[in-house]
Specification:
Helices cover 48% and strands 13% of the residues. By secondary structure, the chain is an alpha/beta fold. The chain folds into two domains: 171 residues, Vaccinia Virus protein VP39 (Rossmann fold, 3-Layer(aba) Sandwich); 132 residues, no CATH class. It has a seven-stranded mixed beta sheet, covered by helices on one side. It is elongated. The structure holds S-adenosylmethionine. S-adenosylmethionine binds next to strand 3, helix 8 and strand 4.
Length: 315
Amino acid sequence: MQKVFNKYGLKYDVKSSLAQSRLEYKAQPQKRVDKQSFYKESLLKSAVNKLRMTVRPNMRLVPATLAVLIQCAALLIVAAVIWIVNFAVTVYFGANLNISIFTLVLMQALFAATLSYLAGMATWWRWIHLCFPLTAWIMFQWHIPNAVYLVGFVISLSLFWTTFRTQVPFFPSRPVVWQQVANIIPQDNPVRLIDIGSGLGDMSMYMAKTRPDSQIEGIEIAPLPWVISFIRAKFRRSSAKFILGNYQALDFANYDVIFAYLSPAAMRMLWDKASKEMRPGSLLISLEFEIPGVPENIRILGNKNTPEIYVWKIA
Ligand SMILES: C[S@@+](CC[C@H](N)C(=O)[O-])C[C@H]1O[C@@H](n2cnc3c(N)ncnc32)[C@H](O)[C@@H]1O
């Protein structure tokens, strides 16, 4: 096993599985841009930004509320466009406009996706806005019984719970990441580690298996993944403990390692809490998401299958 030190003096072991991983210390490659395309790009950018400032509501809305408002606004725009076009066709051609439902649904989808872009919503929201009216129309065509929607809603609710507020959906990390995390954490002494937002519990159970000397926990806010992780841990006789709750209620001072796989929206709040509560020398590890303006001590570069891992050693 090879020992690696970075420039901050943080030490960890590198097993063969990690041998291909490269370390990067914030060295960003410089992009060469020619003048003309630079001006073109900045003119276009400022026009889009101006439009965004007009469209974007001044109040701070959670994305789910903004999404509902955008669909309503798109509906009003579609109604207005149809009314104007119908008026023009009637006046100039003396005929009535004949538009299929599918065309209306497509217009709704396109207007909603455009508005979400102008409102500066994340890319996946644009896809949701685009797909939502079309999917609703297809489902309507299939005459699916109402109970199916209710069951779908209950399952989604227990899986995603307050995602509309936390802005952290459920998606699992992969075994290669768990190995890398196991290699990063201190090897010499037992640690107390918690996965904040433990999902189905795989990461915590892996850590409990690889580090039987340590105390491994997971906390999950959504009931369904928590129940599943709890039952799985019992069946597997894993020593990992799973708590149902919000990680914001924890005292981070009780842990040596905090592992987070959250979302860009959650990182600022996470850092506010971690920097206040975590003990000097403890590690905050984030899969995929950086903390804006807080340089990490170690970054393990990912590849197209594995996201990057960021590590902060609390000073
Ligand atoms: C991206 S998943 C990560 C799952 C798991 N850590 C893994 O690596 O497979 C994020 C999870 O965090 C949960 N979550 C979001 N906000 C939370 C909070 N404030 N407290 C506890 N769990 C939270 C979500 O419900 C979701 O299951």
